[in-house]
Write a structure and sequence with these properties.
Elements: E1 5-12, H1 23-37, E2 47-50, H2 61-69, E3 75-78, H3 85-98, E4 104-112, H4 113-116, H5 119-127, H6 142-157, H7 161-175, H8 189-194, E5 197-199, E6 202-203, E7 212-221, E8 233-242, H9 258-269, E9 278-281, H10 286-296, H11 304-309, H12 326-330, H13 335-349, E10 363-370, E11 375-383
Parallel strand pairs: 2-3, 2-4, 9-10
Antiparallel strand pairs: 1-7, 1-8, 4-7, 5-6, 8-11, 10-11
Helix pairs in contact: 7-10
Length: 384
């Protein structure tokens, strides 16, 4: 389903250790800037979609934020789909605009996970994802669940740890060009392979960061195009795929719902994976990105690892990917991490990726996944 919706404004806050920040203050900062970037005023916003927060786990976060921000929108709700939330929020905002319910929908997510949660609090939150009866009593956590996927995938497709490490290094190279990124210092394959083991075969530098930060964007009717101060980006299509919640119920450890969601998005847009110029794909762990690149069809099975080691995801590579540094190096403040992928796609399609701009991209693929590769949402975006 092609939509008549466009992304009219975006903003990502600084990401990292932001002392004194809060969930709502970060939402506020991102929202103000995104609305301004769209050339709008707060009173123009008639729809609000938020995500969730671990530091402020309010049951009605979107209503609370709207109250805080001084909005009385026609539509206001929050979405919880883990790491897929950012892409799902954009898909839902596009639907609201397409069916005439709203003219301008504010999509915003943020959290102060680094400064607002203790180390024990963060570990506890990650441990609660597992099945209460069949996983958590045996020590299953988010990293260990992804380690199961990594172990199986590496065995079946001869993936080497150094190839996973190449993903982390590539993301750091991109983040080094991004002044808003959490971690910008140099990183080598050796650094990754020498970092502490978290859950074999995944090491600390195979894991995404824990950060403070927020991202916001405005989805508008295409009739607003003529009034925009910046280049519009079309939301061409979207798709979703949902196969399981807990890893013990996953139908496969090598194939996931990203295959279905991307097939839907490509089919609705009438394009192929080979038509995509840039990709922004959820990278909670290095194995997440590798598995999804192959499941989506950007690489054949067993080929992505070697291709990445040879530079395939770099700015001048075959498929420039996560050009802002991704969750592995740009930062990961929860649901905002997925929003950052959308914002970076918009930035690249506007040709405003200063210091990290890919040459003349026209089509972008964005993908988010939540849970343990459980919930998936894919977007196709195009330069207007």
């Amino acid at each position: 389903m092609s939509t008549s919706a466009i992304i009219s404004g975006v903003h990502a806050t600084q990401v990292g250790q932001l002392e004194g920040s809060s969930c709502l203050s970060l939402h506020d900062e991102a929202a103000v800037a995104a609305i301004s970037d769209a050339g709008l005023k707060p009173e123009d916003i008639d729809g609000v979609i938020c995500a969730y927060s671990l530091t402020e786990p309010h049951l009605m976060l979107a209503s609370w934020f709207s109250e805080f921000f001084g909005l009385s929108p026609n539509v206001c709700y929050a979405i919880q789909a883990g790491g897929a939330t950012g892409a799902v929020m954009v898909s839902q905002a596009a639907a609201l605009v397409e069916n005439g319910t709203c003219q301008h929908v504010l999509v915003v997510a943020g959290d102060n996970r680094l400064t607002g949660l203790s180390r024990d609090g963060a570990v506890y939150a990650l441990s609660q994802v597992g099945h209460a009866q069949f996983e958590r009593p045996y020590g299953m956590s988010v990293p260990s669940a992804y380690a199961l996927v990594a172990s199986r995938y590496m065995h079946e497709y001869n993936v080497e740890s150094s190839q996973l490490a190449a993903i982390a290094v590539t993301m750091r190279e991109h983040a080094a060009r991004n002044p808003g990124a959490h971690r910008r210092e140099s990183l080598s394959i050796k650094d990754v392979l020498n970092s502490p083991m978290i859950s074999s075969p995944l090491r600390r530098l195979d894991c995404s960061l824990i950060s403070d930060g927020a991202g916001a964007l405005v989805v508008s009717t295409e009739r607003a195009r003529s009034d925009l101060p910046n280049k519009a980006v079309k939301i061409v299509s979207s798709g979703q795929g949902h196969t399981h919640e807990h890893i013990i119920a996953a139908p496969s450890l090598t194939d996931f719902g990203c295959k279905q969601s991307s097939e839907q998005a490509f089919g609705k847009a009438g394009i192929l994976a080979s038509d995509i110029d840039i990709a922004q794909i959820y990278d909670s762990f290095t194995i997440t990105l590798l598995v999804e690149l192959e499941s989506i069809g950007f690489f054949e099975r067993g080929e992505a690892g070697a291709a990445i080691a040879n530079g395939a995801l770099k700015l001048d590579g075959r498929l420039p990917c996560n050009t802002h540094g991704g969750l592995l190096s740009h930062g990961h403040p929860g649901a905002a991490g997925g929003v950052f992928h959308v914002i970076e796609a918009v930035t690249q399609l506007r040709h405003k990726g200063i210091g990290r701009q890919v040459k003349n991209p026209e089509l972008a693929f964005v993908h988010g996944d939540g849970g343990i590769l459980s919930a998936h949402c894919s977007l196709i975006l195009a330069r207007d």
